[in-house]
Fold this sequence. Notes:
By secondary structure, this protein is α+β, with helices and mostly antiparallel strands. The chain is built from one helix and five strands, in the order E-H-E-E-E-E. It has a five-stranded antiparallel beta sheet, with helices on one face.
Amino acid sequence: MFKCGGTGEVKPADSHVKEICEKIRPAAETHANKQFECFEAVEYVSQLVAGTNYFVKVKVDRGDGHVHLRVFKSLPHAGSELSLHSMQHDKTRACPVEHF
């Protein structure tokens, strides 16, 4: 359970989060100005706001390269649109995924 405005607990990436990441991958590659070897959601936390923020750890190469994404999903009446809010580079598997 989490409080309004706060983040929940870290969870393994489920099919819903993996689908979000696949949809946002082109925006992430544009932001990073490169093509990633792979793009596999690992784990995430979410935050309820006027929509949902997803903070997702994503594996982006065959080594230990990861990025953290902040993806916003608007409410249904606003079209449930996805947008890449921000991205943190040079992360590893050991880096905790958290609000940024």
